[in-house]
Amino acid sequence: MKRSIVYLIACTSMIFVGCNEDFLDPVRNTNVITSAELVEYSDQNPALIEGTLDGIASFMIQDRGITTQHYDIGQKGVDIWMDMLSGDMALATSSYGWYNGSANLVATVDFTATENKIVWDYYYKIVNLSNSVIMSSGGNDAQPETDGARRILGQAKASRAYAYFYLTQLFQREYDPAQPILPYYDSEVAETAKVPASQIYDLIISDLTDAISLLDGYTRSNKSQIDKSVAQGLLAYTYAAKGDYANAKVQADAVIASGYPLTTTGQLAYPGAGSGFNDINSGSWMWGFDLTEDLGHQLIDWWGQIDYFTYSYAWAGDAKSIDNLLFSQIPDNDIRKTQFGTTPNADLMPINKFFDPARTAGLQYIITTDLIFMRVEEFYLLSAEAAAKTGDEAGAKATLVELLTNRLGASEAAAYVAPLSGNQLRNAIYLQTRIEMWGEGKSYLAMKRNQATVQRGSNHVFRAGESFASNSDELSFQIPQSEIDNNPNINSQN
Fold this sequence. Notes:
One of its GO terms (cellular component) is cell outer membrane. The protein is mainly alpha-helical. It contains 21 helices and ten strands.
């Protein structure tokens, strides 16, 4: 019987080298070398380590990296699941059935469901690859002497932290530092039994703190690479997930200070100048992936699930729409309300937020619209949330006004924010997070942080009108059957 990824990690740290299909094939083993061999070979060919870092970025956008399923599409596939679990993304029509189990909230309570395996294996594979680079760079306590070596170790540590952070959010129902939640592997220590959440969070914070230092002064060549600001963003999210809002605000403010401009009014929605969330060169984008024609991305892609103007499931009958209760809370004078519109398949699809610029239904076949992982608006919202939760309501309101000015207009933004205080202010920031980040996977993180109860509107195919607390079984994933069957130190799903 094939052993699980985590159990394999305990036996040997492995790496898939190369940047093309050989690297991404989960069953191919002809290009597997041990970490010890990588250390030896990397002295002769440093490109091995470089290729592994590039491979992590490629794996994040790979179609069918773990299974043959059409929703196995890396981080952006997880983003869709998170948006559906939060209730903000409605499966408004279902012709092909790919998201029925998620939209119906049955996959997350069934540890045999494929969705759980995809999420678990995806993040632990990134942990595994990151550990290999860290070990080949001298280990967790290495002190690289060259700029290149510092950058490699910093990016590897940030990648490991990114994977563990999402694992904590997806497999723990609510933050409890004492609760055993995940197996732990840091390239030097292997614990295949579940360890307390505090141990995982300590590693994440240590990794990101190191990464911020190691990446200081580094200028990347493309946005698929992690730099200092991305590491600071991940650290801000980590502190916020723990409820440490003072440190979360420090990191969020550091991201804001790094100089990324806010998305302009015109960029927010078609037909504005330069509109649409489809181009990695957009100034507000901090982290993403430039999809080019030679990569050959087609139907099995995030755009193939979301965009009406791509040859896609969304165009052909699996419409993903904004929840109509959430939509009803967007003021008519908010430019973001125009991000959603009507198609022959369904109302309230994101046809003016995520779209192929040619804007012909089902036209884009080879996908060249880009993938977004992180943008600066997230940290205006997180900074405001942190300020409100640490008693700095004036600071929270000022930051919120700054964000909303491009969305509502300056006077309208000020008038909206001015009377807010206490729970009203905190609730408003959470609402603005849901509106601003729709379709980008971040509302789920905010739902967990705010311990919110979500109510579905009437435009969901499944479970319309029902409400779920953030710590409900249905809103977190299960440790998959493959892990339980093959890891003798785990015998329960969550």
